């Protein structure tokens, strides 16, 4: 069995960058505190991640698809909390 090192590196990069969102998501869901998070930044970020996901599907780049599918779920959950936060 031959290892595709480029694919392996892609999956490693995808895992590291994707799971870097987990602590922020956990914090936001536990505290419901999103006041210091920029709505514009997260909205643009989620749209960009969706575009990367679609791109990955179009060119069949599975590390791109996997990373952006998970990242979209994580970032969208923060965006959801931000949009539904109670005003102080």
UniProtKB/TrEMBL annotation:
The keyword Transmembrane helix applies. The chain crosses the membrane at residues 6-27, 39-58, 64-83. Its main location: membrane. It is a multi-pass membrane protein. It is found in: Membrane. InterPro entries: PQ-loop_rpt (IPR006603), SemiSWEET (IPR047662). Keywords: Membrane, Transmembrane, Transmembrane helix. It comes from the Bacteria. This is SemiSWEET transporter.
């Amino acid at each position: 069995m031959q290892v595709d090192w480029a694919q392996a590196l892609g999956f490693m990069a995808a895992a590291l960058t994707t799971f870097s969102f987990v602590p922020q998501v956990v914090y936001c869901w536990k505290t419901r505190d999103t006041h210091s998070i920029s709505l514009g930044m997260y909205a643009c970020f989620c749209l960009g991640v969706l575009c990367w996901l679609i791109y990955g599907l179009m060119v069949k780049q599975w590390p791109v698809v996997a990373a952006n599918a998970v990242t979209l779920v994580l970032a969208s959950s923060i965006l959801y909390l931000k949009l539904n936060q109670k005003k102080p």
